[in-house]
Design goal:
127 residues, mainly beta, four-stranded antiparallel sheet, 0% helix, globular
């Protein structure tokens, strides 16, 4: 079982940038995804990156404003978001899928394909 901890959340002004980090207790040479959940809404996909870093997927709502990066030597995956909007307010979660091979972007947008989840970090965008 991989233990994941998200950090970097907080209160940020609309239009600013934010960097979230997901740190793992062990190796996370797996596909890592970022999801978010706003109050009263279902958990939604944000972005994902394969263990190699060669494959990525982004939700339409963040495409062009978000980028995922990873450092496998440090067992961390980061989500950088720019031009933040009030609709980005949510609890952000990272998760890992322990299948070694990347399949397709649509597959990794589904929460049920992930095996381990972090506890989440709150991001609040103030206007």
């Amino acid at each position: 079982q991989v233990h994941l901890v998200e950090s970097g959340g907080g209160v940020v002004q609309a239009g600013d940038s934010l960097r979230l980090t997901c740190a793992a207790s062990g190796r996370i040479a797996y596909t890592t995804g970022w999801f978010r959940q706003a109050p009263g809404k279902e958990r939604e996909f944000v972005a994902a990156m394969s263990w190699s870093g060669h494959n990525t997927a982004y939700a339409d709502s963040v495409k062009g404003r978000a980028s995922v990066s990873r450092n496998n030597a440090r067992n961390t995956v980061a989500l950088q978001m720019h031009r933040l909007e009030s609709s980005d307010t949510a609890v952000y979660y990272c998760a890992v899928n322990r299948s070694p091979d990347w399949t397709d972007a649509a597959h990794y947008s589904r929460p049920e394909v992930y095996d381990s989840w972090g506890q989440g970090t709150q991001v609040t965008i103030s206007s």
